[in-house]
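As a warm-up, study this chain.
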Amino acid sequence: MTSDLQKETYLLPIRYTQHDLFVCDIADAVLKDDMASMEHPVFSLSKKPDTNLRRYENGNYWIEVVPSVKGLATIYDKDILIYCISQMIAKANSGGRLSPHVKIVAKDLLVFINRTTGGKDYEALKEALDRLDGTRIRTNVKTGGEEEYKGFGLIESFEIRRSEKTGRISEIAVKLSDWVFRSIEAREVLTLHRDYFRLRKPIERRVYEIARKHCGRQDSWRISLELLRNKCGSRDSMKGFRFAMKVLAKGDHLPDYSVSLAENDIICFSNRSVMKEVNLPATDFPVLDPETFHDARTVAPTYDVYWLEQEWQRWWAESGKPILQNPDAAFIGFCRNRYGRKPNP
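Now compare it with the structure written out below.
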């Protein structure tokens, strides 16, 4: 068993305290990722420019990822998308109106994704936006017995503003692609552990995404080493990929899940207790999406969210059990109001 101190050596340091994260309310945003890009290996795991076209097939369905001359968007470039998705879900939970247009304060973004704030880090954001803008998706979609060929980008466009005094990027405006925006509107997103941004290696981030998507809140999930390698989009040999999984298992530092390598090259993911399914009461109370409890913890950080759920259910029943169009948003609002009136329980 790896000690907590040993695990820390496998992770990047926490560069900012929780207090720092309250700049511009960015602490209200729980990490969210869209399920579509978690399912498919859209992002490159290479730290060098990857200009290879990728094609993945599943029966009659296929998807191609086409890079620009600057290369495919990388798993680190995806941090910008995760930030945008997280902010928009937080905005929706606050009752705000969603739009594919997102304005980003560059420093807030760097703090949120646990990066340093030197000049090279700001320039790296520009390079990441270039790759996100240039990477295109091609796929066939069958509707009504006809095959439809579609093409779209990871982002539709972006704009950068620089400080006249320092020359550094101060603000970024991004228009998300319809593909990403539809995932946000449909809440086809999953919560990520904040230590996701502390994972050092691209393969670790990709394996975590797959575990979060497929293991979810199950006690465990198993997958063959070869299939996991394909789902990761790894260019490593089987020998190299097997070694990487052994290192991941030894470090035991993957957020939410422990990893082990069983016989016959089977990878086993075991759910840590923090991700277990919430047992909701079998009553006529509004049923909440388990994801909502993660959001509730951010708007009422000093409270036990399950106690708050009971209080909310009691209030709902005493109010005559009104019809709730969006129970999850209603519960988040209840938690926010309770915390605002009384920060300490």
